[in-house]
Amino acid sequence: MTSPDLSLNLLGPEAIVVAAAFFVLTLDLTVLRQKPALFRARAAALAACVGCAAAMLWLVLLPACGSSATLALTPMTQFLKLILLALSIFTAVISLNARFTRHVGEFFALLLLATAGLMLLISSDNLLMIFLALELLSLPLYALAAFDKTSLPSAEAALKYFLFGGISAAFTLFGISLIYGITGQIQLAAIVPVLQAQPAEPVFYAALVMTLIGLAFKLAAAPFHFWAPDVYQGAPTPVASFIASASKVGAFFVLARILLTGFWPGRGGAALGGFAPGWMPVLAAISVLSMVAGNLAALVQTSLKRLLAYSAIAHAGFALLAFFGTAPRARPSLLFYVITYALTVVGAFAVVAAVETAGGRDRLADFAGLSRRAPLLSFCMLVFMLSLAGIPPLSGFFAKFYVFVAAAAGAPNLGLLWLVIVAVAASAVSLYYYLQVVKQIYAAEPPPGLLQRPALSAQLAIALLAAAVIALGCAPSLLLSKLSTALQFSAF
Hints:
The protein is mostly helical. The protein has helices at 4-29, 37-61, 75-94, 104-123, 127-145, 152-183, 188-197, 202-219, 227-234, 237-244, 246-262, 279-298, 304-320, 327-357, 370-373, 375-389, 395-408, 417-442, 456-474, 477-488; strands at 66-67, 72-73, 269-271, 274-276.
């Protein structure tokens, strides 16, 4: 039985974030109700940042202390929770000067509740708790996507997000129920010996496919990506940045935990000429389809947020390559990829938010000549775009390099080289549309009087994210060493 002290340590950070959500809501509805909307937004954002910082302090001061029946606190989960809280802080800073809603208390409360859901998802140790945490994450995001009440695209995006999310949740829950029917277990570690002791049944493959469908929706991986472009474009930009960054980190981690821990005996094979039933061939098909569909669709976009949405679909395909490596190589390469991608994409959305707040929109034409109006933002956007394209010496280059190497070495005689070749070709295609953004910023003539000076807080946050992308590119061991150390003392 779990002791009260252990339970407090396991749920302490989540409890702080939830308490901060209720504090922000109460503060806005009482003390700040008659204040101007911009003042209320800044006060609520500050309170949200303080709550996330307090949760981070709890995680830093208290060591990893073990697990309960449903949750685990390990060095790996501690580190990822710190990353998620940092991304939530950046999202709150991006929202400081947002003018898309007067209900700022509700907005930041829902953002914090989504963060709490992500933290629970990272700690979840069994399939049922994973499902509950996914829903705790998803429900606030559905509401956040619709927060711009003056925008019809925002309402449409939220409706699509909700409908697709409900269907994917049904698939996930049905897949989990089939796994429980086969094994009699929902604990990930307990599923492994049962699957090893009996031959794979057809119902296992059905359960596997259904579970992957639900999680592929969260990743915006093709062919379960149709919600992403509309949601990224229609939702308020800070919400889109959170969906594209923090929720992706949590979704990839839980997918890795399920496949590389619980379902490892049913992996099958995806090597050329050596296909075997299991999750590997299904994941290979999803990866290839995501890379091809995402990159080709991004080529014709005129909205930067839609371009980033299709880019996210392609990057989901790139990140899935890590699953084909051996377990010691797959895990750090996957986590390095998703963390550096999250930092990069939240920075790119922060630039979009700064341009929108200062009087522009998300069209590529609105970024024309940005270098002459906002040199710091332009340089940071250059860093983000080149990192997403995988140009050295930025973090995106090493992220792709590590997952490519993991996939190439994941089968005897380089049997998965075909997958890497597709990925390299898709990455080359992506360079074109990222350079289109850079071309608009540095080569196109600026329209007169479009952009005012961006807020100092936004500029500082964007510069910090760009510095992190450059630092992790010049010294990837800064992150890899922490991941490797954390993985040595974790079950995952």
